[in-house]
What does this fold into?
Amino acid sequence: MTDPDTAGGTGTPADLTKFAWLSIAAAIATIVLKSAAWWLTGSVGLLSDALESSVNLVAAIVALVSLRAASLPADANHQFGHTKAEYFSAAVEGVMIFVAALAILYTSAERFLSPRPLENVGIGLGVSVAAAVLNGAVALVLLRAGRRHRSLTLVADGKHLMTDVWTSAGVVAGVLAVAVTGWQRLDPVVAFAVGVNIVVTGWALMRQSVAGLMDGSWPQEDNTRLAALVSTFTSDVITVHGLRTREAGRRRFVEMHLLVPGEWSVDRAHDKAEEIEAAIGAQFAAVTTSIHLEPREDPRAYGDFEHEVRIPGKPEPTGT
It folds into this structure.
């Protein structure tokens, strides 16, 4: 099974920086388009949309830096690699989203108190829609690449851009409503709703980043798949316990204790461990598996961990 975290099956980490450059180019283009839409109409809703795109640009630049750092190989000071650098990108993006949201909320409150008529609505909305279509296309590319390569940075950037698309849709609807009803204060109300939506997005990104830095376990679905796979190697004489998982950016780690008869040779036990490692590597991308061998007859081999991934259908035997 080809590891989607490598390029061409060579074992070399896939170069994801091209997606960051795509995000940067899209952010610059949408800033220009949305700023033009705001200048043409005077809509504070469209201004809030443009401000969010400026955050997209900063986030894309941070993503580029973090992806380059995450792709660096292990060294003497970082023996497990640099993949956690991606979590810092998501955290920075979350902070930047909060900053943009505050600016949007402040501007919308000011405009609500001092409403102004909108101008050139048709042309302005046309420009804004073009920017939203561009953002949507780039967001789909980033999300697809992020999920394929298990890159939190690309997934976060893609989700942010997709949120921007829905934000733009709401703003366009609000400006149209103002044009139809003539109620000028509806424009800042929509902008305020955009700001609240951005706060929610930023909070979600911050939580995801912190979870990664805290060595969170794999998603439940993947843990279940892993446990089912490992269970196929257990028997009346072979037991696995202490199965634990964690993620670090695109890299995944598995640890477990393999209990075998004490009479087995080191070679035989090691062969079984290698077989399990190979099976896990074939089913899960970018995974490092560590297996600790123990004699099943030794009472000290049991009760090591309070929390672990449960192996289905194989109750843990007691030591004798």
